[in-house]
Amino acid sequence: MITLTLLHPGKTTAVQHWTFNTESTIRIGRSLDNEVVLYSAVVSRHHLEIRLNGLDWEVINLGTNGTYLDGQPIKTVPVVDGMIVSLASSGPKIQIHLSSEISSINQQFKPLTESVSNSPSNQEIDWSKKTHQETWH
User: Fold this and answer.
1) Which pLDDT tens digit goes with each residue over 48-75?
2) Fewer CB within a 10 Å sphere, N or C end of the chain?
3) Is the pLDDT of residue 38 over 50?
4) Domain 2-102, architecture per CATH
5) What average pLDDT does this structure show over 109-128?
């Protein structure tokens, strides 16, 4: 299994979680056909993919504004448990956790959980609603 956690801007607190069975691809972006949908002006329709390559996961940038790891732009990098990627240099941050439990690769991609208090009931976050502490360009 792989768990994605959307982090609050400027903090390391979780806003929302998505947990998936291992499947070949997880797409993140603004478009509704992604597995994880994030609304932000800096997020592309199909911003990044997290793809299973053999037994290992990798993050692949598809976004015009780039995907960043430790402040550096990436194209394709292997997933390391606990890593945090930013969608654009100032955009939403996603933490990636890998589980030692490996499900059958042939299973359908299914979100298993999505629970954080006060989070939306679907998998969409509207990042256009800013607070005075959030800066999304």
Assistant:
1) 999 999 889 999 999 999 999 999 999 9
2) C
3) yes
4) Sandwich (2.60)
5) 44
